[in-house]
Amino acid sequence: MKHTITFIGAGNMAEAIITGLINTGCPKERIFVTNKSNNERLIYMNNNYGIGVNHDREIKELIDQSEVVILAMKPKDLFPALDHLRSHLQNNQLIISVLAGTSSKQISDYLGTQNPIVRAMPNTSATVGESATGIARGANADDSHLRIAEEIFSAIGTTTIVDEEDLHLVTGLAGSGPAYIYRIVESLEQAAVTLGLEQEAAKALVRQVIVGAAEMLKDLDVDPGELRRKVTSPGGTTAAGLEALENNQLSKALFEAVKEATIRSQELGKQQY
Ligand SMILES: NC(=O)C1=CN([C@@H]2O[C@H](COP(=O)(O)OP(=O)(O)OC[C@H]3O[C@@H](n4cnc5c(N)ncnc54)[C@H](OP(=O)(O)O)[C@@H]3O)[C@@H](O)[C@H]2O)C=CC1
Ligand SMILES: O=C(O)[C@@H]1CCC=N1
User: What family name appears in the similarity comment (predicted)?
Assistant: First the structure.
C-alpha cells in the first residue's frame, strides 16, 4: 500500500481497518489518525500501532502529508468534522467515507470542494483481514479513485464494487453482517448451556462449528445448499434441527434483519444534522 492515509475518527471501524492494514504490511509511517476530543484513545492508537496521531501534531500537518483522507466518524458527527477539515484539504486529495447512509453528494455539497469521493462499507472483520467491503464511486471520482480504494480495502479482505445507491443494502447485509453471526453464536451457546452443557464446552464447540463452516465456504467454493445437504442425513438429527429452524421462521427473521438495517441506512442518509 503506497498511499499515505489520514483517518478522521479513531473508533472501532478506524481501528479495525488500521489493524488490518498494518497486519498486511502497510508501513505505520503512512497512517495517521485524529478524532474529536478523546486524547487517551489517540495515545492508545499511537502506543499500540505506532501510527501518527494529532495530539502532538496539528491536523493540518497530518492532512498535508496524505493522499487519502478516510472519514470514520458517526454520521451525526460528519458536518462538524467537515467544517474542521475543509480549510486543510487540497483539491486532489481523495476522500473515502465509511459512514453508513450518508451519500457522497451530501459530503461533497457540504464541503463545497471538488475533491473526489469514494464510499466504502467495510466491516469489523477487517481486524483479521476478512472484511467484506462494498465500494462505490461517488461525487467527482473516476476509475483511478476507485482503484485506490480497492487497493486499500483489498488489504483488509474482499472488495465488491457496487453502485452507490446499493450501498444501503450492502450496509444492512455486510457492514452489519458480523453482528448477526455473533448473535447466532450467542444464541447457540445459550441453547447448549440451557440444555445441559458446561459453558466452556459450549463455547469451544460453537466457535469451532462457525469457524469450520466458514472455512468450508471460503476454501471449497461450493454452494451452501450442497454443503447443508451433506450434513443432513434423511430422518436424522440435522433434518430435525433444520425443520425446527424453519418452523421458527429463521429465513424470515434474517430477511427482516437485512431489510430493517437497509431501511435504517436510508434513514441515516436522510437525517439533517
Ligand atoms: N462499527 C462498524 O462495524 C462499522 C462502522 N461503519 C461506520 O464507521 C463510522 C464510525 O463507526 P465506529 O468506528 O463504530 O464509531 P465510534 O463511535 O467507535 O468512533 C467514532 C469516532 O469518530 C470521532 N469523531 C467524532 N466527531 C469527530 C470530529 N468532529 N472530528 C474528528 N473525529 C470525530 C470520535 O472521536 P471522539 O472519541 O474524540 O469523540 C471517534 O473516534 C460510522 O459512520 C459507521 O457508520 C462502517 C462499517 C462498519
Ligand atoms: O451499526 C452501524 O450503523 C454501523 C454501520 C454498519 C455496521 N455498523
Answer: Belongs to the pyrroline-5-carboxylate reductase family.
CA–centroid distance, 201 to ligand 2, in Å, is: 31
What number is the average pLDDT over the span 86-96?
93
* CA nearest to 86, candidates 61, 115, 65: 115
> What angle, rounded to 10 degrees, do the helices at 250-270 and 237-247 form?
50
241 pLDDT more than 70:
yes
- How do residues 175-193 score in pLDDT, each as one tens digit? 999 999 999 999 999 999 9
Testing ligand 1's pocket by substitution, the residue of 7, 15, 32, 36 carrying the most ligand atoms inside 8 A of its CB is 36
- CB-ligand 2 contact for 171 (6 Å cutoff): yes
Angle at which helices 199-220 and 177-194 cross, to 10°:
140
What is the CA(101)–ligand 2 centre distance, in A? 9
Q: Rounded CA gap, 151 and 159, in Å?
A: 9
pLDDT level of residue 108 (50, 70, 90 thresholds): very high
- State the closest ligand 2 atom to the C-alpha of 13, by its place in the atom list counted from 1: 8
The residue whose CB lies within 8 Å of the most ligand 2 atoms, and thus the one to mutate among 119, 121, 169, 171, is 171
Model ipTM value: 0.98
Domains of the chain from N-terminus onward: 5-167 (3.40.50.720), 177-268 (1.10.3730.10)
Atom 8, ligand 2: residue with shortest CA distance: 176
143-183 pLDDT per residue, tens:
999 999 999 999 999 999 999 999 999 999 999 999 999 99
